[in-house]
């Protein structure tokens, strides 16, 4: 069963697609969910954003970070509750998948910012990184019943998934993203973050998230020992983004640092 987003989150996402939305519009649906606001403000004031002044209201948060960043955090607090459990078939222990997702989100945003692709893309790939593996949430129960340990078979996860239940987590993730009315860019990334498919319009976004995924895989954050992961960046993705090996080594260090800060700040859904 595909989980639904809380009504307040659905409304926030709808408002983000309305060019006439102002701060008052954005704040209105959040007024009735004090717990959500508290979690969002905790993240706004975390070292991840490094603000000098403490933010105490959603209005101040929008002023300092912008609508897109606040949208990302609202979605993050909801996604955290969905992923706050074990996903043993994928080699994730307690909160492992959430920590991995946060790491990929932060590394994706860092890379987009480093490449100077604009604030809008940086936030879109942050969201895409955050939910890139959300499809695992749908497939885990079926894999558990079948007794399939995806990450220890030495084959690509999506191949094991398709052979076991006829669907991979890329396809499942795209289905969830469509139901949640996430952007076409995010849907494209979810559908093709392990392959070369998808529309040319979003190929840079897919390359950014694939590279971030490889970096976080290399750190093993969120995974148990003994799993097989794709840790090597794809040369085609580096070439598409105009990066050589020397540049990539330096950027990778920055991505790992961003990942560590984000996991420390956002690692607990509470």
Q: Write down the secondary-structure element order.
A: HHHHHHHHHHHHHH
In the CATH hierarchy, the third-tier topology is known as Hypothetical protein af1432
Instruction: Give the proportion of residues in helices.
Output: 55-70%
How would you sum up the major sheet?
A: none
Distance between the termini: 24 Å
Number of E-type strands = 0
| CATH architecture classification | Orthogonal Bundle
CA radius of gyration is 18 Å
Number of helices: 14
CATH homolog superfamily: Hypothetical protein af1432
Spans of at least 5 consecutive residues with low confidence: none
CATH class: Mainly Alpha
- For the residues shown, what is the average pLDDT? 91
Structural class: mainly alpha
Strand content: under 5%
Count of discrete structural domains:
1
């Amino acid at each position: 069963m595909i989980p639904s987003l809380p009504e307040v989150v659905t409304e926030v996402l709808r408002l983000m697609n309305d060019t006439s939305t102002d701060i008052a519009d954005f704040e209105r649906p959040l007024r009735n969910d004090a717990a959500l606001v508290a979690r969002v403000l905790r993240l706004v004031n975390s070292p991840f954003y490094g603000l000098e002044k403490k933010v105490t209201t959603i209005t101040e948060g929008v002023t300092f970070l912008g609508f897109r960043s606040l949208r990302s955090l609202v979605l993050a607090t909801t996604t955290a509750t969905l992923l706050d459990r074990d996903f043993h078939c994928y080699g994730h222990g307690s909160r492992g998948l959430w920590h991995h997702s946060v790491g990929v989100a932060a590394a994706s945003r860092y890379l987009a910012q480093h490449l100077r692709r604009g604030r809008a893309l940086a936030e879109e790939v942050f969201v895409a990184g955050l939910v890139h593996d959300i499809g695992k949430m749908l497939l885990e129960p079926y894999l558990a019943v079948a007794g399939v340990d995806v990450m220890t078979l030495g084959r690509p996860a999506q191949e094991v998934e398709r052979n076991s239940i006829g669907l991979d987590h890329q396809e499942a993730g795209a289905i969830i993203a469509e139901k949640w009315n996430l952007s076409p860019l995010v849907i494209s990334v979810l559908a093709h973050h392990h392959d070369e498919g998808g529309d040319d319009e979003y190929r840079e976004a897919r390359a950014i998230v694939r590279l971030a995924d490889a970096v976080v895989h290399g750190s093993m954050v969120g995974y148990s020992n003994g799993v097989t992961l794709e840790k090597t960046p794809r040369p085609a993705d580096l070439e598409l983004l105009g990066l050589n090996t020397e540049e990539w080594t330096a950027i990778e260090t920055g991505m790992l640092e961003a990942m560590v800060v984000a996991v420390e700040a956002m690692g607990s859904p509470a």
